[in-house]
């Protein structure tokens, strides 16, 4: 890695390291320690809320699990804090996992509501249990020791706290910048595209949820040994809400924004608590009002939080060079030309009384380009969704290489080597073109959460990115490789979707209106690309309205009208078919 | 005997949770806002009534004037590129004149030792316009945001309103006088007039809402917005109008709940939040969509609460809020998997 890219980070670390050595007032260190502790929780929330599109007001409860675990074990049983650290983290994970299992399958808003409820319930519970010292809590917790040196003062535990903050932040950045991370970042787009390329979205949600629980427990563990005592107050709902405020203010999509947000909120809180009583003559919790307004105003005026404004002020980091890789990804062995790949048999889809697809049967053979055409509302896209598992069959069946795949989820369908594009393009506008395409190669990598967190999967990641870059180049989007995908024009987005499908190394490509929005020259290039793929043995099933494009390209045509198959065969024959002419031109009665 | 007492207690509280639950479902389905601050209207209502009982001018009137003034500023800001006189005057009347009139009326009426029903009505009059202003200030600028963003904003509004409650009412709890303090004996059951008022008001509001949604054009517009926002807009429903209506209804229901619950328990500035959340437990059981299930579930929440406060009083809150976990399990197993587009 280039030194220029590491420089800002190193400068930040050196700056943090010398603060306690400077003659700063002692309460600065207290605030910085609190910022560090809150940053840990907030980094988890950033991954959960800003990146994963889930949210939680109950993170403080996970801090509580971490803190109470170490408090009980180190006071009652005399365990060393370093022994209780893994146990605290395990308790955090073990509570997050079942809560996550229950809620991540539900639509977005039930999770946060659930977190409010358990945030309250757990707070009351902490205060009721004798083992946890009820509302008085537990005191006399031993300090953390390293080689006989106890971290007693604010100035010493500072280093420990910030070591963990920086380690977790870097780990979180690593995680997001990986195969697993792309799956997590794709959650915000609704997850349909991610599922279509084999990402297990439920598992991705669980991953971030458990991650957020573990880092909150880590924060709790540090808090217990810094404060040397615990009681239920800092683990209640209002703290949970404050953590979310930090994530929103900082910038809920940015890992470094978490630290920034925690700093803003805690410094503001300190200022309010010190100066407001003099100003308005009440010691009441007036910061609540300010925080509430701050939260609403941030959402109204700066959706992405304040960190993007800071990023604008900072000098731009040089773009990351594309990693090079000598490894080649394994390629799928394609079925011999002419053998049956996808076979649709009497497929039927009824939405209530409306039969969108009416007992349609057809076949896609290896090495064929098959066109699926028909007037608007003929059931073409629904047929696509039936094949790819996005919609369930009312009756009938779909086979892949002779094996039934009826009832398979989009993820299982993707594993067969069926890659698709969407009629209404589903890309992730905030991710770069390259990353969007790399999402398609998800199933060709294997690195998991831990390897990604520790950056041990660089070699495989480089191979995946190299493959994605190749596909980007191949479809002619090379000039836009590092731009956010949201910058592309509609036609280019369709091409991007094709590149994403290609990076899955498909046996069959399902393209839903790939030429819509393309200019004439671009259509020619697309047709050439598809012909070339056919030569390589890849099969294509495409829905298209542009007859010129279809007729010159496909080997076989299937025509639907009002959900029913009205004709199929070679393009020349289908063209003359009276039912087809009638469907398109109104026909002679 | 204890059981009948607990059941009565549970049903009484449950009726209030039902009102709040209905308001939450109404707001969510029309505006997609998960309205955490619903409970603050309850606290404001109860505290306002208690202060009126003492012959004082409640601080909520000044709060209302502040809210109105801020809402007016928001209107001015969005009118900065020019507007017509009618819009300006409407905004002036709604945001400045209305709270001013209410403020003046309260100053005149507060020391008059009004009958309790009049005080209750005055309370509702003071609280209800807050719904309009809260919508204008916090939610209207976010009208196109996702449910999640609206929910986070709700938490902000809740913090601000609860904090303002502390600033304006102080940390001490207040208890209002009952609307009527007779007691009736029906068989072995002793029923207070206040709980009869609660049952009556709950049933009246449920019927009122039903009539509103079934019989009036505005009610139908609200239903249309709930089913499909874009579609409703395309056929000419002004979604801002439905938003304002929904928030006004919610604030009014909150104020009524406050008036009803104020005399049976001591209300602090932060009590409303917990009461509102119990309405939420019911609304979640109803999937944030079904009015009848929400109402029935609310009675259930009230019963669970009264029984657990008798048999396991120290775990009361744990049990009530823990209720939500099995509910979520059930919702998630019954295939409530619907992605937001």
Provide keyphrases for this structure:
heterodimer; A: 589 residues; alpha/beta; six-stranded mixed beta sheet; four-stranded antiparallel beta sheet; B: 341 residues; mainly alpha; two-stranded antiparallel sheet; 14 helices; 2 strands; 2% strand; disordered C terminus
Helix and strand layout, with pairings?
The complex is a heterodimer of chains A (589) and B (341).
Chain A: H1 3-18, H2 26-51, H3 59-76, H4 81-103, H5 110-126, E1 138-139, E2 145-146, E3 149-150, H6 154-176, H7 179-185, H8 192-196, H9 201-227, E4 229-230, H10 237-250, H11 255-280, H12 287-301, H13 307-313, E5 340-351, E6 354-365, E7 369-373, H14 380-388, E8 395-400, E9 403-404, H15 410-415, E10 418-420, H16 433-440, H17 449-453, H18 458-474, H19 490-502, E11 508-512, H20 520-535, E12 539-543, H21 547-551, E13 556-561, E14 564-569, H22 571-576, H23 578-585
Parallel strand pairs in A: 7-12, 7-13, 10-11, 11-12
Antiparallel strand pairs in A: 1-4, 2-3, 5-6, 5-8, 8-9, 13-14
Chain B: H1 2-31, H2 38-53, H3 60-78, H4 85-109, H5 116-139, H6 147-169, E1 183-186, E2 189-192, H7 193-215, H8 217-227, H9 229-234, H10 239-261, H11 271-285, H12 291-311, H13 316-322, H14 324-333
């Amino acid at each position: 890695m280039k030194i220029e890219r590491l420089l800002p980070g190193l400068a930040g670390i050196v700056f943090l390291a010398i603060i306690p050595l400077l003659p700063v007032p002692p309460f600065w260190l207290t605030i910085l320690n609190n910022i560090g502790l809150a940053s840990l929780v907030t980094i988890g929330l950033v991954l959960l809320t800003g990146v994963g599109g889930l949210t939680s007001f109950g993170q403080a409860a996970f801090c509580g699990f971490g803190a109470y675990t170490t408090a009980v074990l180190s006071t009652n049983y005399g365990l060393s804090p370093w022994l209780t650290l893994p146990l605290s983290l395990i308790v955090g994970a073990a509570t997050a996992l079942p809560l996550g299992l229950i809620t991540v399958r539900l639509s977005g808003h039930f999770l946060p509501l659930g977190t409010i409820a358990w945030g309250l319930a757990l707070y009351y519970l902490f205060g009721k249990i004798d083992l946890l010292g009820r509302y008085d809590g537990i005191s006399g917790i031993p300090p953390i020791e390293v080689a006989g040196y106890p971290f007693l003062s604010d100035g010493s535990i500072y280093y420990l706290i910030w070591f963990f903050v920086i380690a977790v932040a870097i780990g979180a950045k690593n995680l997001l910048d990986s195969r697993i991370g792309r799956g997590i970042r794709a959650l915000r787009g609704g997850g349909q595209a991610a599922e279509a390329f084999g990402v297990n979205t439920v598992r991705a949600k669980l991953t971030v949820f458990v991650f957020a629980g573990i880092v909150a427990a880590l924060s709790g563990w540090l808090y217990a040994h810094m404060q040397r005592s615990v009681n239920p107050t800092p683990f209640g709902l209002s703290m949970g809400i404050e953590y979310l405020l930090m994530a929103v203010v900082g910038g809920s999509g940015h890992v470094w924004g978490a630290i920034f947000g925690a700093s803003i909120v805690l410094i503001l809180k300190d200022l309010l608590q010190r100066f407001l009583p003099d100003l308005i003559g009440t010691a009441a919790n007036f910061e609540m009002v300010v925080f509430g307004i701050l939260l609403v105003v941030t959402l109204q005026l700066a959706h992405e939080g304040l960190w993007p404004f800071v990023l604008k002020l900072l000098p731009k980091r040089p773009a990351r060079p594309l990693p090079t890789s000598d490894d080649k990804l394994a390629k799928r062995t394609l079925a011999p030309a002419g053998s049956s790949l996808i076979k649709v048999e009497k497929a039927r889809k009824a939405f209530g009384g409306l039969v969108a697809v009416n007992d349609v049967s057809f076949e896609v053979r290896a090495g064929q380009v098959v066109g699926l055409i028909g007037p608007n509302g003929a059931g073409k896209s629904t047929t696509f969704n039936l094949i790819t598992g996005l919609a369930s069959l009312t009756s009938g069946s779909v086979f892949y290489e002779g094996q039934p795949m009826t009832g398979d989820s989009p993820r299982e369908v993707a594993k067969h080597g069926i890659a698709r594009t969407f009629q209404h393009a589903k890309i992730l506008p905030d991710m770069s073109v390259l990353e969007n395409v790399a999402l398609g190669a998800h199933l060709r990598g294997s690195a998991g959460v831990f390897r990604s967190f520790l950056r041990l999967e660089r070699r495989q990641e480089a191979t995946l990115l190299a493959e994605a870059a190749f596909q980007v180049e191949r479809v002619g989007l090379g000039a836009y490789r590092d731009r956010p995908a949201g910058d592309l024009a509609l036609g280019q987005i369709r091409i991007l979707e094709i590149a994403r499908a290609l990076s899955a190394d498909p046996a069959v490509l399902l393209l839903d209106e790939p030429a819509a929005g393309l200019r004439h020259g671009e259509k020619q290039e697309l047709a050439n690309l598809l012909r070339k793929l056919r030569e390589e043995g890849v099969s294509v099933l495409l829905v298209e309205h542009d007859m010129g494009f279809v007729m010159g390209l496909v080997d076989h045509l299937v025509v639907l009208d009002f959900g029913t198959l009205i004709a199929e065969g070679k393009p020349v024959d289908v063209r003359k078919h009276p039912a087809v002419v009638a469907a398109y031109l109104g026909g002679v009665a | 005997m204890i059981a009948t007492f607990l059941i009565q207690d549970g049903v009484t509280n449950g009726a209030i949770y039902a009102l709040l639950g209905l308001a939450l479902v109404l707001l969510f389905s029309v505006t997609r806002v998960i309205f955490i601050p619903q409970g603050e209207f309850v606290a404001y209502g109860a505290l306002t009534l208690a202060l009126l009982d003492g012959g004082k001018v409640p601080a909520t009137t000044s709060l209302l004037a502040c809210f109105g003034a801020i809402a007016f500023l928001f209107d001015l800001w969005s009118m900065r590129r020019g507007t017509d006189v009618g819009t300006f005057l409407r905004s002036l009347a709604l945001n400045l004149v209305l709270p001013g009139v209410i403020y003046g009326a309260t100053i005149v009426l507060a020391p008059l030792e009004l009958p309790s029903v009049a005080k209750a009505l005055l309370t509702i009059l003071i609280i209800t316009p807050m719904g309009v202003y809260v919508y204008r200030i916090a939610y209207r600028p976010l009208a196109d945001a996702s449910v999640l963003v609206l929910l986070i904003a709700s938490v902000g509004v809740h913090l601000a309103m609860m904090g303002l409650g502390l600033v304006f009412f102080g940390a001490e709890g207040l208890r209002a006088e009952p609307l009527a303090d007779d007691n009736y004996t029906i068989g072995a059951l002793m029923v207070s007039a206040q709980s009869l008022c609660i049952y009556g008001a709950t049933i009246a509001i449920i019927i009122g809402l039903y009539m509103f949604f079934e019989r009036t054009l505005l009610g139908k517009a609200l239903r249309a917005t709930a089913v499909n926002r874009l579609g409703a807009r395309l056929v000419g429903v002004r979604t801002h109008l439905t938003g304002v209506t929904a928030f006004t209804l919610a604030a009014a229901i909150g104020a009524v709940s406050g008036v009803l619950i104020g005399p049976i328990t001591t209300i602090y500035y932060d009590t409303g939040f917990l009461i509102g959340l119990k309405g939420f437990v019911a609304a979640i059981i109803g999937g944030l969509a079904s009015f009848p299930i929400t109402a029935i579930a609310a009675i259930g929440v009230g019963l669970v609460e009264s029984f657990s406060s008798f048999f396991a009083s120290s775990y009361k809150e744990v049990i009530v809020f823990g209720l939500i976990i099995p509910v979520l399990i059930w919702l998630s197993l019954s295939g409530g998997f619907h992605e937001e587009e």
